[in-house]
Design a protein that fits this description.
alpha+beta, 3-stranded mixed beta sheet, Jelly Rolls
Amino acid sequence: MTKEEFVALYEKCQTEQCTTEDLRLLEKYQDDFELEERPWLPEMGDKQQLRNQLLSELRAKLPSPRKEARSLFRKMAFAAAILAFISTGIFFYHRWNGRAVDVKDHFTKVKDEKAPILPGRNKAILIQANGNMIDLDGSGNGHLSKEGGADVTKLANGKLVYNKGAVPEGQNITAYNTIATPRGGQYQLTLADGTSVWLNAASSLKFPTTFSGRERMVELTGEAYFEVAKNRNMPFRVLANGVNVKVLGTHFNVMAYPDENAVQTTLLEGSVRLQKDSAEVMLTPGEQGQIRPGARAFKVREVKVNDVISWKNGLFTFDNENIKTIMRNVSRWYDVDIEYEGQLGKQNFGGSVSKFNDISYLLKTLELTGTVHFKVDGRRITVMP
């Protein structure tokens, strides 16, 4: 049973619509959804106070259940509160060699709705092979750990570096780490082979701490820019939402957010081969290959590559983009929720502004076109004609 199925079944029982079999399933799977203890970060607020608040709200919403279910609901109250913790966080779901791994990494915190909306910054969590999580924003600089034959170091500029260490002869140490950014976060790291990666907001990268064998393989959710270290004997592969990007040594950008309508790979230098199911294409510098869900072929077009990677250089750059595409980027970077009201026109926008401006500057700039207006209420932005 998935987390979503469990929550749906629980909500069904809250409204007294569940059967005896539903109750049996809830009791059977409830322990599967209890979180193990994770480091509690200071910005999350008071842990016990938040837990008590969630429990109080949960109990207030519970109807008076049937007698046979009363003890079960009481027994499950804490587990349900833990689920509430999960559902307020950010989830990254990865597949590696066909094996599903559910990484319950969350950046849960009690948000002050009256606080100013600030631009994003270097912020990420590193999930190690043993499940331990390191808050890279809050950790000090210097040596962090030794992982699978690699020394992991955080530099003063906020960059994470994996340096391949000595591995005893005859031993093949393979460990996988995941670095994950929340909305309003970004991070840069250097993999053990020397490849540099810039990770955009609301993204994650799963990678081996050291590379061995015939190829170097990583898995991306969200968006990242890669400068791959050359190694003709060991091709580099990026798996992103079903698309396989194969390179030897090159510079390219991959955008594979779940809420976008296509996976886009943009080549700046070298060459890459894109493959998804039976579709395959080679890119040359200046080209972007994209494929939509269910499509049988890649669409290739020439693009302004500097515009595509402007996000890593601290800019929002849009070239004839619609307002919903722009606001998805705004939502990720400023960690805000977007709503739409009224019938928006088909006007597209172009231009470039700093990502580190106050959000009001960006919104006022868009309003100058006279085709769109905004209402800001806490961390919710309503887009209106």
